[in-house]
Amino acid sequence: MDTDPKDAFNALMAESRNTVIFTGAGMSTESGIPDFRSPGGVWTQNKPIPFQDFIMSREARLETWRRKFNVEKTMRDAKPNIGHLAVAHMVAHGQVEKIITQNIDGLHQASGVPESKIIELHGNTTYARCLSCHRRHELGPIRTTFQRDETLPVCEACGGIVKTATISFGQPMPEREMLEAQRDAISCDLFIAIGSSLVVFPAATLLPLAKENGAKLVILNREKTDFDGLADLAIHAEIGDFLANLPNPTY
Ligand code: NAD
Hints:
Elements: H1 5-15, E1 19-23, H2 42-45, H3 51-56, H4 58-77, H5 82-92, E2 98-101, H6 107-110, E3 118-120, E4 123-130, E5 136-137, H7 139-149, E6 162-166, H8 175-187, E7 190-194, H9 206-212, E8 216-220, E9 233-235, H10 239-244
Parallel strand pairs: 1-2, 1-7, 2-3, 7-8, 8-9
Antiparallel strand pairs: 4-5, 4-6
Bound molecules: nicotinamide-adenine-dinucleotide.
Nicotinamide-adenine-dinucleotide binds at residues 24-26, 28-30, 33, 35-38, 41-42, 102-105, 122, 195-197, 199-200, 221-223, 238-239.
């Protein structure tokens, strides 16, 4: 008889001394934020604007901010879902050491996970930064002036271009976060990927890195992924339902 995936998940968690969770957009669909690649996802509606275009073209910057403020309310209204809360519970009880996320929505923080336990590989869309001096800018004042007459935000400190604090296609990965994520992938003994199609690189390289360095690998995703064959346990289920209904965990 096949082992129930929930029991198999619990057994791997019980054995582990150092678990890392890696999350993607699927983690937040139950909070009402569409993912990229599911039907109706962001990808199917808007082609991403590459970083170089954002830098070089005023029109691309205008279009980026128009799109941002079209979807901002969804992002602002989103609350952590039961999946986020289950993960936060695991962190609070010392069962999970670190969350490495591709998400830009800040919902792991909102679910109560301390900032020190979260690595954001693709930045955060709930605020903006100057691309030259890296000063943080809040979205409220940018929204007010942009929605009035499409004034593009400029850094008052240095005159630099201001962009949401996310990593766009073609933009270099944040060095410190990537190094820290690689270190955690190498040192963990259980790496759990949740809600990611695992087609965005270099983030997805963390899975083989963890596996090559001796970690057990779990993938929890509605659809199959190209890494399922590498996994010790590949679970095809809804994230919230799966994580919030684990039977009597002993870890
Ligand atoms: P993706 O859209 O490529 O893949 C999401 C995966 O999650 C899909 O395979 C889908 O089947 C699965 N999924 C969706 N909802 C699920 C659910 N409730 N239960 C189980 N599985 C579910 O996302 P990705 O791999 O994270 O790559 C997309 C990129 O886009 C990331 O780099 C991320 O930065 C960005 N993004 C972020 C957000 C966010 O912050 N919430 C949203 C959209 C895109």
